[in-house]
Design goal:
This protein is mainly β. Helix content is 2%, strand content 53%. The radius of gyration is 18 Å and the shape is globular.
Length: 226
């Protein structure tokens, strides 16, 4: 049984780590694979020790040589959203000796992450989205500090994304826009109709005004403003 594909994030030694989890279930057994979204993008396997409808404990890595233990709870959020939350324990001689990190992974039936022709990884529509439709909820740490990955929510608040917004690329002719009419629950909405399989993008310059660190635009739009 196919369950879904999740964008996972957790704190690491050199900053937040992002991974793409392809997860499926057979009876009480959860299994799948985990691919790093960093430069190396290594893929490892996941298989549960035990599981039920509410969550599971799984080993990450080869059988008998696990690199981490995941102890996760499943939370349904409605509208096709599902979250895995819990902890990740790096294994040494035993899982109790390893470093522990808070772990969150989110599944959204509307979007998925794939390799992008614009830059690295991108976010793509799983299904047709009408103009004005919610693409995804924007999640992350809200701060007053603008960074190369942050998005402006209000003049005084920036979001350091831990969800799909992290991998949405820039386009000078964007098909989505940030809706911060409720700053406590900012959304990414379709600016126009978006077809299934189309890469989702937004205009960094329109949203930010000025980008920290700058970047090279490779969006393919007919007219550029960078």
């Amino acid at each position: 049984m196919r369950v879904g594909e999740f964008l996972a994030s957790y704190p690491g030694d050199s900053g937040r780590v992002f991974e793409w989890i392809e997860l499926r279930r057979q009876g009480d057994v959860w299994m799948g694979q985990v691919t790093g979204l960093g430069a190396e993008g290594a893929t490892t396997h996941l298989r549960s020790r035990s599981g039920n409808d509410d969550g599971f404990i799984a080993e990450l890595g080869a059988t008998g040589a696990a690199t981490a233990i995941l102890d996760l709870k499943i939370v349904e959020r409605g509208e096709g959203e599902m979250v895995l939350s819990g902890r990740r324990v790096q294994t040494g001689s035993s899982s109790e000796d390893g470093a522990m990190a808070a772990f969150m992974a989110e599944y959204d039936a509307r979007v998925e992450i794939r390799t992008s022709a614009i830059h690295g990884h991108g976010v793509f529509a799983r299904r047709d989205l009408a103009a004005g439709a919610v693409i995804t909820v924007i999640r992350g740490e809200m701060t007053r500090v603008q960074t190369p990955h942050s998005a402006r929510i209000t003049d005084d608040v920036h979001c350091e994304p831990t969800g799909y917004l992290r991998y949405i690329n820039h386009c000078c002719d964007a098909n989505s826009v940030i809706d911060a009419s409720d700053p406590a629950r900012p959304l990414l909405r379709a600016r126009r109709a978006i077809a299934a399989g189309e890469e989702i993008n937004f205009d960094y310059i329109e949203n930010e005004g000025e980008i920290v660190g700058g970047f090279a635009c490779n969006c393919g739009a007919a007219t550029h403003h960078i």
